[in-house]
Design a protein that fits this description.
Elements lengths: L15 E3 L5 E3 L8 E5 L6 H12 L1 H6 L3 E6 L3 H11 L4 E4 L4 H6 L12 E5 L5 E6 L6 H11 L2
Parallel strand pairs: 3-4, 4-5
Antiparallel strand pairs: 1-2, 3-6, 6-7
Length: about 150
């Protein structure tokens, strides 16, 4: 079955994810500021590390645009804590254990089996303004998200 990737103009689903300490947080709690929500397959793998470090290196540009950056994968909180510490990531990584958020956003799997890589730029009111999906261009997610924020 193919996923129905959410697109520009769709309302972002209000899914609940886990913080690294096990507490929960909903996507709706980020309303009031633009949100760059990126889904990635696995902590500390080459593509995911490149993507996270690209978001880290551009983090000031995101905060200057008033945006919050949040990464999401199925990895547990301990894995996220190690990944954040190892690469000095200044943004939150949330856990989507059963991939309910990935499903709600319609993030497609790669080759039908690998967890997907997709980025959503969501405005302060919770409406998706831009989407980008590419497993094999992890650094482009940052460029796409920044361009979308600048064009709003």
């Amino acid at each position: 079955m193919l996923n129905n990737v959410l697109k520009t103009g769709d309302r972002a689903p209000d899914v609940t994810l886990e913080e690294s300490d096990g507490t929960t947080i909903s996507i709706a709690s980020f309303r009031g500021r633009p949100l760059v929500l990126y889904f990635y397959p696995k902590d500390d793998t080459p593509g995911c590390t490149a993507e996270a470090c690209a978001f880290r290196d551009a983090y000031e540009a995101f905060t200057d645009a008033g945006a919050v950056v949040v990464g999401v994968s199925a990895d547990d909180g301990a894995s996220h804590q190690r990944f954040v510490a190892k690469h000095r990531l200044p943004f939150r990584l949330l856990t989507d254990r059963n991939r309910a958020a990935q499903t709600a956003f319609g993030v497609p799997k790669t080759l039908g089996i690998l967890p997907g890589r997709a980025t959503f730029v969501i405005d302060a009111g919770g409406v998706i303004q831009h989407t980008f999906n590419s497993q094999f261009q992890p650094d482009r997610h940052v460029r796409e998200a920044l361009a979308a924020l600048k064009n709003r």
